[in-house]
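User: Teach me something about this protein's shape.
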Amino acid sequence: MPFERFATIVTIDRIGQPQPAPDADLYCLDRLGIGADEAISIKDTPVSVTAAKTAGLTTIATPGTAVCD
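Assistant: First, the predicted structure itself:
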């Protein structure tokens, strides 16, 4: 995957709490130097939508493949 195309990438080792906490979204906003009102978030699971909305992001939900136990 051509990671150089992304302005920022976040992994669990960079944030405090996993989703549904908004930590990953807030981390990305901080790294990009923008506010939530300047971005949109595209998510594919209910838990990730919750995280983005909690971070104050306008969020687009798209169907994804979820693994259920």
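Now, about its shape. The radius of gyration is 12 Å. The mean pLDDT is 90. If you'd like, I can walk through any region in more detail.
User: That's plenty for now, thanks!
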